[in-house]
Each structure stands twice: as structure tokens, then as C-alpha cells.
Description:
Protein name: Phage holin family protein
Organism: Telluria antibiotica
Number of helices: 3
Radius of gyration: 29 Å
Low-confidence stretches: none
Helix content: over 70%
Number of strands: 0
Strand content: under 5%
Distance between the termini: 18 Å
Keywords: Membrane, Transmembrane, Transmembrane helix
Largest sheet: none
Order of helices and strands: HHH
Shape: rod-shaped
Number of domains: 1
InterPro entries: Phage_holin_3_6
Amino acid sequence: MGFLAAGGRIAATLAAMVGTRLELAAVEFQEDARRLLGHVAWTLLAVFLAAGALLLAALFVIALFWDTYRLQAVGGMAVLFGAVAGIILMKVRAGMNAEAPLLSATLAELRNDIDYLRHAVAHSHAGGADE
């Protein structure tokens, strides 16, 4: 009877732990989704405004040098835009690499649970050997 009661308590504890971790995962996933949506919205707005500004700036430079250095002006603007795009991509990649992985808090809690259970099982076996 003692084994059944202990097994029932362990099963209830495990079910409670799994439920808590699933709730944490759902909350964390929802927060990550909202943050990502915000990043995407602001990025699209920035891209739209930057494209308009860059187009007007390029047209201004090309018009300014139309009579003398039109090909050099077009080439210079292309090189400038390419360099700036490369810098922006490197910055975005660095920012994405610096963020915590998806569901990191949930995974950390699951690791803690596994360590706790291993510790509890090790102590129960050690206690059973002494009896």
C-alpha cells in the first residue's frame, strides 16, 4: 500500500510539474510572438520610409551630376546603398544572435525539474538501502 501511495504522489507531482511548465511555455511563446510582431511591424515601416528617402536622395545626387558625372553618380549611389545594406544586415544578425533562444525559461525550468527528480530518486534509493 505504501508503494501505491508513493507512486500516486509522484504521479501527481509530475502531472503538476508538467502542467506548470506547459503554462509557462504558453506564456513565454505568446510574449515572444508579440515581440516578434512588433519588430516586424516597425521594420516594415522603417524599410518603407528608408526606401522613399533613399530613392529621393539618389535622384537628387544623379540630377546634380547629370551633365558631368552621371555614371559615376549612379555607381557611387549603388555602392553607398550596398554598403549601408550590408552594415544593417550585420547589425540585425548580431541583434538576433544576442536574444535568448525561444522558450529558454521553460527549458531551464524543465532542466531544474529533471535535476530535482534525479536527486530525489538518488536519495530514495540511498534511504532504501539503509533500511
